[in-house]
Amino acid sequence: MAVKLSHLFLLLVMPSLSLTSGHKCSTSDSSCNQCIQSGPECAWCTAPNSNIHCHTVKGLQRAGCHKGHIYKPQSSVQVIRNDSRTDIADAKTIFLQPQDLAIHLRPGVSQSFPLSISMPNDHPTTDLTLDTSNVPAGLNITFSSITTGNPLLVQVTVEAAQCPSESDISNQNSTGPWSVQITPRGFAKSVTLEVTLQCQCSCTENREENSPTCSSHGALVCGRCVCYQPYVGNLCQIDITSFESENEDSCRLRPGAPVCSGRGVCVSGMCHCNQRENPEKIRGQFCECTNFDCPYHENRICGGNGICECGMCRCYANWTGSECSCSTETASCVAKNQQLCNGRGNCICGKCQCLPQYQGPTCEDCPVCVAH
Ligand SMILES: *[C@@H]1O[C@H](CO)[C@@H](O)[C@H](O)[C@H]1NC(C)=O
Ligand SMILES: *[C@@H]1O[C@H](CO)[C@@H](O)[C@H](O)[C@H]1NC(C)=O
Ligand SMILES: *[C@@H]1O[C@H](CO)[C@@H](O)[C@H](O)[C@H]1NC(C)=O
Ligand SMILES: *[C@@H]1O[C@H](CO)[C@@H](O)[C@H](O)[C@H]1NC(C)=O
Predict the structure, then answer these.
(1) Which of 33, 40, 149, 167 could make an SS bond with 109 (beta carbons 3.0 to 4.6 A apart)?
(2) 328 C-alpha vs ligand 4 centroid, how far in Å?
């Protein structure tokens, strides 16, 4: 008696995990797990000296990664038990074939297998529904009819939408293996699928601590250095602290002085001085020299009587003092008797500084002197 498989029951499970968003292989070069999770086409190069670790197989080969170093977990269906019915005469029970399968899934790549369902001879012609149980979130199992009659042949397709996020992966069961049962409704027989998501690289388990490849400053994982702090670089060859402090110190005029005198940035141990609008300039190994940071006199830099060089006033001829405010010219100090300040004072900066009791531009006045 033929049983018609008139409609098939689709059990669709909504993903409830937070799932990683899809992106291209080449942007996930940081770890093998991230790489293979970023798309079913993504493969990993386990050669430490490779410039690119994550790409399509073709992309990795183009980048010079040897075939033997390319790791790309595949989706697969492995039939564990596929017993045939031995007692043909016993047509009173339902019989399913195969009975046990192990399925490895790269999310985004579906896997299918044919399921043969031998119905009992006395079973009335009716609809057959296939139920699934224990299907985890994110897994989609669908059925389609290949042939009708007895036995029925049904195509079973298993697909995972995406890998769970890294935080969910740390929760052990998020990538399986899960045991899923497919059961014709109303019968006591079922097919068992053991489903595992291929979201983790097997090479991550072979972690070489203090690897010489990683300058003994990191672990070699899947051909990639995972550097210990404070080391960085492809081969953990750079100590970031020494890089920073040594080079910053070489940017100080003297210990404790501001880096690049506060007027520039320290790049690889060298000061790069800030740019100013012309004619202002900053110069010097430590940006210590400016032509605008000089004393002012009467609102003019270097009193208008000199030029500012490296923070110091260089005075024009006949001018002196830290702000070039002092004239060396003495003509204005000469008194009527041709003596500087009438012999009663000192000519300082072109002006007489008179002894006590004397006054006037050339110290000729003496209000307290007794007149003869
Ligand atoms: C199970 O074995 C039968 C032969 O007994 C074969 O036709 C069928 O394809 C096998 N099923 C699977 C899923 O490999
Ligand atoms: C499950 O697969 C079917 C057939 O490929 C598809 O139509 C459906 O959208 C999928 N459902 C989910 C939740 O991915
Ligand atoms: C993981 O699966 C095992 C059996 O496969 C189960 O006993 C355990 O409770 C599961 N753990 C979580 C966190 O789901
Ligand atoms: C500086 O003083 C000398 C002598 O008094 C004079 O000859 C010369 O012209 C002055 N120079 C300037 C630049 O004023």
Answers:
(1) 40
(2) 9
pLDDT level of residue 21 (50, 70, 90 thresholds):
very low
- Residue of minimum CA distance from atom 10 in ligand 3: 173
- Give me the domain span that covers residue 135: 2-6+75-81+94-166+173-197
What secondary structure does DSSP assign to 219-253, as a single string?
Answer: EEETTEEEEPTTEESTTS-EEHHHHHHHHHHTTBS
127 and 192 fall within a common domain: yes
11 CB under 6 A from ligand 2?
no
Q: How far is CA 342 from CA 39, 359, 364, in A?
A: 99, 10, 6
Find the CATH number of the domain harbouring 152. 2.60.40.1510
Range of weakest confidence among 21-25, 119-123, 305-309: 21-25
Higher pLDDT, residue 67 or 4: 67
189/142 same-domain check: yes
Query: Could you tell me the pLDDT band of residue 88, with boundaries at 50, 70 and 90?
Result: low
Q: What's the pLDDT score for residue 8?
A: 33
The answer to whether residue 20 is domain-embedded is no
Among the listed residues 66, 75, 88, the one whose alpha carbon sits nearest the alpha carbon of residue 198: 75
